[in-house]
What does this fold into?
Amino acid sequence: DTGVSQDPRHKITKRGQNVTFRCDPISEHNRLYWYRQTLGQGPEFLTYFQNEAQLEKSRLLSDRFSAERPKGSFSTLEIQRTEQGDSAMYLCASSSPESSYEQYFGPGTRLTVT
Amino acid sequence: EDQVTQSPEALRLQEGESSSLNCSYTVSGLRGLFWYRQDPGKGPEFLFTLYSAGEEKEKERLKATLTKKESFLHITAPKPEDSATYLCKRGGSNDYKLSFGAGTTVTVRA
It folds into this structure.
């Protein structure tokens, strides 16, 4: 297994456009998380899946954000009507049920909204 | 709100010059303290978990220690490849949603 992968690695979009990011977790990990990181800050929690169920969402996840994990494997994060404030690194992480605290992060998707 | 505070924000070291990073936290149901390393343009990489005061963990040139109110990450005789941002995060109930610190960016010059 090559670890958590994310696609695309970089995305430049114009304000008002919709974007979708994909995350493929480590195959045996049933837990998947999305975080957002801005320059000079640590990652901030956005949402958490256990298998296909979205169990928790941060208040940072406004109505323009939606995340899915339809088959309990890969996940997508969609941002509708992007705003300049959405510019950030979007990180995906996964963990196993045996060591849920030990999260494995992907390389992230860098979003720039112009 | 419980949070972690990291200091210093940045640390510039000469190769071989040992130093320490600090992570202090407010305590409310503390259940573990995590350290991660993050290289530019990459996601964080898990390093250590510490659970109780007095606990120590080591990995190569890094040693993490924990007291009741803070954790230290000691870098012994660092090399340029130790250059990275080091993040800490406290554990607790549903620790996946707890905040990371802002990190300490370490630069080691040859």
About this structure: DSSP finds no helices and eleven strands in chain A. The mean pLDDT of chain A is 93. The first strand of chain A starts at residue 5 and ends at 7.
